[in-house]
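Homework-ish question, so no full write-ups if that breaks the rules, but can someone show me the predicted structure for this set?
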Amino acid sequence: GIQVEQSPPDLILQEGANSTLRCNFSDSVNNLQWFHQNPWGQLINLFYIPSGTKQNGRLSATTVATERYSLLYISSSQTTDSGVYFCAVERKGGSNYKLTFGKGTLLTVNP
Amino acid sequence: ETGVTQTPRHLVMGMTNKKSLKCEQHLGHNAMYWYKQSAKKPLELMFVYNFKEQTENNSVPSRFSPECPNSSHLFLHLHTLQPEDSALYLCASSRTTGGANVLTFGAGSRLTVL
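A: Not a homework solution, just the prediction itself:
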């Protein structure tokens, strides 16, 4: 199956700092989503971004499909940004409903 | 509140018990999913239902038995579980027709098997 690798595995920031999270995938995709999981386990969809660039407030994401990677940018980080960030992809030509998740990046933002 | 509700939020059971997890979505979605999240592992897809029909069973042991009576409700029946089945079980839903298949997750049911 498709492989999804996220980096870094852990990241510690001071409030106000910027960061970039990376997701590499091993095959062509027709679906790529970024999720944030808060410390209580709730997963929230941040972006649906199989290609191109999107922005939502302090967060933005870019996917370069031809080079098989996606980046999530967090600017002016806040303590509420802490949690695990997951990238999930669906292989092009695969099952329409099978998202494969990476292992995530654990982000800790200190006040 | 995401529109996907899971109950119970926490469950402790013995290996010989029978229990069920429930998921309900109020988003008008047609597909529902069960994922398992164990410590230090990526989320693992267990089952997918599309318009009440099972479309994916990711080699899940038979001690996990899903049920989808309609597009808004999904159950996971648990029977004779093992301690290694302790995990966070996440339900999700999506609309798979007419556009991007974007998942909305519930808050999860944390299961501990003694």
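Now go work out the reasoning yourself. Hint: Chain A is about 0% helix and 60% strand.
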